[in-house]
Design brief:
The chain has 177 residues and is mainly alpha-helical. It has one domain. The chain has a two-stranded antiparallel ribbon. The longest helix has 24 residues. It starts with 7 loop residues before the first helix and ends with a strand.
Length: 177
């Protein structure tokens, strides 16, 4: 059977769609309203990085070429976002380099998380800037990330809409808040 993503044009279109779906999931109001992620450029960037990690983990083993196309699309979106913020051509390179370092640092931290507690710690450092008052939210997001990773890994095909599973809820004492 031929690989439907073998042709560069098809791969690029799919990567663009996957990035759009991933970005839409990262912008779900629950993250900002219920889980206290700051609704700012930094907060949105960190949610995109978390969701990109989930998507790239799904693609890395089965579709390495598509994984690279998604990565290219993510950075194209970062470039466009910087331009929309008014960053000129002279500043794009410097800012893009800084964003790339932050992005890959987050991916590395999430990949290195050996267990749920480690992932919650990485999320607390990145999404909540280490705020100790956000430990409960970080744990809820870590639980969501674990479930989303499983949901994505069990998707039979990438031609369907991305399935990140249920959006996270803040669980306190086993009861949604």
């Amino acid at each position: 059977m031929m690989n439907p993503f073998a042709r560069p044009g098809q791969r690029k279109r799919l990567a663009r769609r996957l990035c759009a779906e991933m970005s839409a999931q990262a912008r779900a109001p629950v993250f900002f309203q219920d889980l206290g992620v700051e609704d700012s450029i930094d907060g949105r960037f960190d949610l995109v990085a978390l969701h990109a990690w989930l998507l790239l983990e799904r693609l890395s083993t089965s579709e390495p070429e598509l994984s690279q196309a998604v990565m290219n699309e993510i950075f194209l979106q970062f470039d466009e976002a910087l331009r929309e913020l008014g960053v000129g051509d002279m500043g794009i390179s410097r800012r893009a380099k800084k964003m790339a370092g932050a992005f890959f640092g987050r991916l590395k931290a999430y990949r290195a998380a050996a267990n749920s507690a480690d992932l919650a710690d990485a999320i607390q450092r990145n999404l909540y800037r280490g705020d100790p008052r956000r430990a409960t939210e970080a744990r809820a997001l870590a639980g969501y990330a674990r479930q989303a990773r499983i949901a994505l890994l069990h998707m039979p095909t990438l031609e369907a809409k991305l399935d990140f599973g249920a959006v996270p809820s803040l669980m306190i004492g086993g009861v949604p808040s």
